[in-house]
Known about the structure:
This protein has 13 helices and 27 strands. The protein is an alpha+beta fold. A hairpin with a 2-residue loop joins strand 24 and strand 25. The chain is elongated, with a radius of gyration of 32 Å.
Amino acid sequence: MNISTDQVSREIPKIKINFPKSKGFHITATIICILIILGLYYFNLPVLSPRFSSFYVMITLTLLLVARSYLPAPLKKSLVGISFISIVAMILFWLLYQPIFRSESYRDLLGKVNETQFQTLVSPIDLNQIPIVDPDFASSLAEKKLGEDFALGSRVVLGHPTRQMVRNHLYFAIPLLHSGFFKWLTNQDNGTPGYILVSATDPQDIRFIRTIGSSEIHLKYQPNSFWNQNLKRRIYMSGIRNVGIGDFTFELDEDFHPWWTVTIYDHKIGLLGADAIGTAIVNPETGDVKYYDIRNTPVWVDRIQPAYFVMNQLDYWGQYIHGFWNTIFGKRDMLMTTMGYNIIYGTDNKCYIYTGMTSVGSDEGAVGFMLVNTRDKETHFYKISGATETAAMQSAEGKVQNFKYSATFPILLNISEVPTFFMTLKDSAGLVKMFAMVSVKDFSLVGVGESVKQARDAYINALSMQRNTNVSMSGNQRIILESTVTRIGTDVKNGRTFFYIIVADKPNVVFVINTDLSDFLPVTNIGDPVRMEYLSVTDPTVNLISFKNLRLQK
């Protein structure tokens, strides 16, 4: 009889060997799961609030890890089921609060928008206080300063420069941060030695601040530190766990002492709609953390509202003006922010986020601009049709196209009561070579010069040449003055002759005009009666927009 191999294999019973897991194995597995859970919380720092998606993710991971530990089988199944429900709840919660259902809530995130006059927020500025140093240039200057200490340059890197007002002067404060884990490990006891201070108005004013008074500065708690010295972890471990932590800003108080000012925020629309609710101020040397709501934050703190929060909320405000469906069908009256923003200081040294607003689909035309207070988010909308920042930059570059200079993102200024874009013109090496001013109303009106004053004079002259149309656009007051010339002089700039006149009724004011506006200037003498027209300004030097010699002209 022949018996096949298949028949034999069916005759032999299969033997299954179970290796019993010891009690020690289950204890070890449970310990490993607990360590993983603790590690997830320590490194991820989840927000322990149902208004944040990290809350649901961490619940799910925690339950799944617990289910892998030594527990009865029915309880494990229950934990897996609860973790699944947690993820489903997060997804549903996220979907239900999308703009398609809550467009009005998104639009209202910004709060009340005040339509206001430009002059009430941005006062005429002293030419010596115009910020001619931008963040990139400030970083470059700070790098050179840091390079003077060769040993230190290998251990630290520069942080993000923060423009701020300290004792009525604009500075960039740039912290020194650890360059990596091993550098932190070596220097964790002492931290990094201070910060670099760069004047925003004078590129020659660069200071390495290592001490304040007799005390050395040691920045131990910073974003580039690790373990318990990490800035975010320090704030989290201080008890701020049920709200969001973000936007770490290096700021100085009025005594030039450094602090980290960190935005504390919450979600106002389900899991979405981030909005600042306060600040955590951290001493970078001791790690002390103090929490303040917006109203009680110390007055030296310039920024509470992160720029990316504000820019998103401005877009929501412009996008959902007529609800969600208007964004798909019709797009009636929709606005959006222009490409970029800047930080400016207005009246009473208040700090504002500036950005232009343009109609959806518009390339170069702006309908106005927004000024948003960086502390309390008070928002002002100034309606004026004109150029976007990009168009103004291109116009300034076109004025000096033979040099191939590139323009920086503009700052909004008040020049003779006229909204004006100010920017620096840099060469390919990033060095500032010239300055430019461009009218917001008409970006063809440009003034450039090798100094701020030269740029201002050229710009005012361009405005004067268009006096019948553009000069009065912001509601500034025209003043007509009749008086007698007491002094007159000339100066030649870039091939053009400028006359400087002092009259009897304004002995402390110098009036400036060039021959393009009057052929009678070269024959005007001391003692001649004149009629002059200019814009209401507070500067000691005033550019005229018209001139008439009453003795020679009838």
